[in-house]
TrEMBL record:
<feature type="domain" description="Ammonium transporter AmtB-like">
    <location>
        <begin position="28"/>
        <end position="444"/>
    </location>
</feature>
<feature type="transmembrane region" description="Helical">
    <location>
        <begin position="28"/>
        <end position="50"/>
    </location>
</feature>
<feature type="transmembrane region" description="Helical">
    <location>
        <begin position="214"/>
        <end position="232"/>
    </location>
</feature>
<keyword id="KW-0813">Transport</keyword>
<feature type="transmembrane region" description="Helical">
    <location>
        <begin position="120"/>
        <end position="139"/>
    </location>
</feature>
<dbReference type="GO" id="GO:0008519">
    <property type="term" value="F:ammonium channel activity"/>
</dbReference>
<dbReference type="GO" id="GO:0072488">
    <property type="term" value="P:ammonium transmembrane transport"/>
</dbReference>
<feature type="transmembrane region" description="Helical">
    <location>
        <begin position="252"/>
        <end position="274"/>
    </location>
</feature>
<keyword id="KW-0812">Transmembrane</keyword>
<feature type="transmembrane region" description="Helical">
    <location>
        <begin position="286"/>
        <end position="317"/>
    </location>
</feature>
<keyword id="KW-1133">Transmembrane helix</keyword>
<feature type="transmembrane region" description="Helical">
    <location>
        <begin position="337"/>
        <end position="357"/>
    </location>
</feature>
<dbReference type="InterPro" id="IPR002229">
    <property type="entry name" value="RhesusRHD"/>
</dbReference>
<feature type="transmembrane region" description="Helical">
    <location>
        <begin position="57"/>
        <end position="79"/>
    </location>
</feature>
<keyword id="KW-0924">Ammonia transport</keyword>
<dbReference type="InterPro" id="IPR001905">
    <property type="entry name" value="Ammonium_transpt"/>
</dbReference>
<feature type="transmembrane region" description="Helical">
    <location>
        <begin position="179"/>
        <end position="202"/>
    </location>
</feature>
Length: 477
């Protein structure tokens, strides 16, 4: 290949590398934001899952997240992106097609001054984290081979429908004017409902694990939680598709709401249980992040504070009080309480977005001059347009109902079909042993969980290279 004086191949003009329609600043920010969201999953949730579970499940839990991240990407460029944002197939679903052609990837995306390659990458990390959040409800008992099938099936037959309906300009809920700034419906409500439904079909953990499931490393858990929190800067800051004022507002609102939610949860733990729980504070952090997501760039700062207070208290109440009283919640073993932290907090955020959404901020974000759509109920009362505010609230509730029904149905069908091929749940022996039985690997060469260490040495050097006390295990010297 020959090159011209500009350093470009002769068949490629300088305008092809940086076309007039593309904003270099917006593109740089979008790629950065996407990478921040990716870091929430790898390594953020990989570390969080691997450390918040019992020691014998550390490898399996972390690997479920890592596998999902890789599998979603291949499916996303193969067909998932086009089904979510491509040409219309039916009114709630896009037509499957690949996203690998250079002519497509280098052309302008449907939103923003960005190439499609950037948009495909940005939307991929959102799809990936949704599947990883579902995994949180299934830790400690799902057959890994079943999980390998579940990820591409659920992405194809659930996520793409929700994303197209709510985020694609041609989606039916998008046309109704639903407010989902950055995924309160598409990601968090979906993952919370799907995780809870899948947990029902997979069944509970072993009785011993369900009764006592201590984290194997709380400090490492906090490191993963910190990556999740800071990564949310890209999660909500990237959704305007430009490095503008609305992105800045969304980022600040995100962190304000999250801090308020964490502190609210912490205070409730102290008042009712007498001790400041680190795990509880982490849950409060997550519910704050989830709650602000559908509203991050369309509400004012004072609303973000109020949302944080509610996201730190209402999910706390459903998790700590209602969970023990409602038979269905007690029956389903949701390992990471995804139902409360994502389904409840996501629904709460969607409702509050319909109440607090500022018409001016909505016009900045949606780039429309529409006084009948995108108006929070509070501002509807203030401007004597209560009917428009009630309409917005109705659209939000319709979106919540649609996402719940979609995910209960599709997740149930997927789980029933998978169990025809492979068991959904691990065997009793695998549940007893954990990582070593499933992967032949263990996270720590330590004794713990009150159990005798009898697992084989898994090392490149072999057992004969270790002293007898180590190779035989405790009590067998």
């Amino acid at each position: 290949m020959s090159f011209n004086v500009s350093g470009l191949p002769e068949n490629l003009l300088p305008d092809d590398a940086s076309p007039e329609w593309m904003s270099k600043a917006d593109n740089a920010w979008q790629l950065t934001a996407a990478t921040l969201v990716g870091l929430q999953s790898v390594p953020g949730l990989v570390i969080l899952y691997g450390s918040i579970v019992k020691k014998k499940w550390a490898v399996n839990s972390a690997f479920m997240a890592l596998y999902a991240f890789a599998a979603v990407l291949v499916c996303w460029v193969g067909w998932g992106y086009q089904m979510s944002f491509g040409k219309k197939m039916i009114h709630f679903w896009g037509r499957p097609d690949v996203s690998l052609d250079e002519n497509f990837l280098l052309s302008r995306a449907f939103a923003g001054y960005l190439p499609n390659a950037t948009m495909v990458y940005f939307q991929f990390v959102f799809a990936a984290i949704t599947l990883i959040l579902i995994a949180g409800a299934l830790l400690g008992r799902m057959n890994f081979h079943a999980w390998m099938l579940f990820v591409p099936l659920w992405l194809t037959f659930s996520y793409t429908i929700g994303a197209y309906s709510i985020w694609c300009p041609e989606g039916w809920l998008a046309k109704l004017g639903i407010i989902d700034y950055s995924g309160g419906f598409v990601i968090h409500l979906s993952s919370g409902v799907a995780g809870f439904t899948a947990a029902y079909w997979v069944g509970p953990r072993a009785t011993k694990d369900r009764e006592r499931f201590p984290p194997n490393n709380i400090l490492l858990m906090l490191a993963g939680a910190g990556l999740l929190w800071m990564g949310w800067t890209g999660f909500n800051g990237g959704d305007p598709y430009n490095a503008g004022t609305d992105a800045s507002l969304a980022v600040l609102n995100t962190h304000v709401c999250t801090a308020t939610s964490l502190l609210t949860w912490l205070i409730l733990d102290i008042l009712f249980f007498g001790k400041p729980s680190v795990i509880g504070a982490t849950q409060g952090m997550i519910t704050g992040l989830v709650c602000i997501t559908p509203a991050a760039g369309v509400v004012q700062g004072w609303a973000a504070i109020l949302m944080g207070m509610m996201s730190g208290s209402i999910p706390w109440y459903t998790m700590m009080v209602l969970h023990k009283k409602i038979p269905m919640l007690k029956r389903v073993d949701d390992t990471m309480a995804v139902f409360h932290t994502h389904a409840v907090a996501g629904s709460l955020g969607g409702i509050l977005a319909g109440f607090f959404a500022n018409p001016k901020l909505n016009r900045i974000f949606y780039l429309v001059d529409d006084w009948e759509h995108y108006i929070g109920l509070a501002y509807g009362f203030q401007s004597n347009r209560a009917s428009a505010g009630f309409r917005q609230m109705g659209v939000q509730l319709l979106g919540i109902s649609f996402v719940i029904a979609l995910n209960i149905f599709t997740t149930s069908v997927i789980c029933v079909l998978i169990r025809i091929v492979v068991p959904l749940r691990l065997t009793d022996e695998e549940l007893q042993t954990g990582d070593d039985a499933i992967h032949g690997e263990e996270a720590y060469a330590l004794w713990g969980d009150g159990e005798k260490y009898e697992s084989r040495i898994n090392s490149a050097y072999g057992a004969e290279d270790f002293p007898p006390a180590v190779s035989k295990g405790k009590g067998q010297q």
